[in-house]
């Protein structure tokens, strides 16, 4: 059964998709659906050639999309392209062009036919999803209680800075610290006060006058860690001592602390210029031993180690 061409045109023009056709040799539109005016505000008869299509595209998308579509069309390959199309009022709408390449009997490209689809809502949903994913990713690297970076983030940063120090030959310092008598603090004041205590300590130390590339995180429980790139032993000692004094200056009452009635911290610190045979886990364990030594020596103090890189 033959169908009148007017029927085809009526069907095409009743859809939300916008049909179009371009003659390959002249690069001019031989047809574009009147729906284009409803979507973009430009009348159908204003779409003369591919220049109108290209010029009504967001400048940031133009080169990428035009070069891609021309290359695919020259090779006779059907393709799709997403871009932002300019409306007559100066705003932009996301468009997906689905393109079919028609060849003549000799196999030469004769024309391009396709459909434009309004995908603005889809793109907005995708952008919202990406923003949500970024937010979740950020949250996954943050400690839920204190708001500072967490153990997962520390592992990533420490590994990166270790590799950087190996390549640059610059010293890398690490400070581990632990709240003194924290179990006794929770036993006396309760876990809600204990959580508030952790938050106060984290906030005080996160603002300890660090340089932009220094890093602070909650390692776990009442233990925190600082990574200090390009920091020699003297500067690392100063930073550790500054942290100890900062916590004391918070004057957090702790009636069950031995020898003092305010909250304090113990710290282990170390500096290394890592060589190719050094391992970050070994260095971390060494600094952790110095933290343990600070606890054993009476707490509220810094114990430091100079780690010597292996040749």
TrEMBL record:
SUPFAM superfamilies: Nucleotide cyclase, PYP-like sensor domain (PAS domain). Gene3D superfamilies: 3.30.70.270, PAS domain. PROSITE patterns: GGDEF, PAC, PAS. It catalyses: 2 GTP = 3',3'-c-di-GMP + 2 diphosphate. It holds the Pfam family GGDEF. Residues 79-131 form the PAC domain. It is an enzyme of class 2 (transferase). Residues 170-307 form the GGDEF domain. Its EC number is 2.7.7.65. Residues 4-80 form the PAS domain. This is diguanylate cyclase.
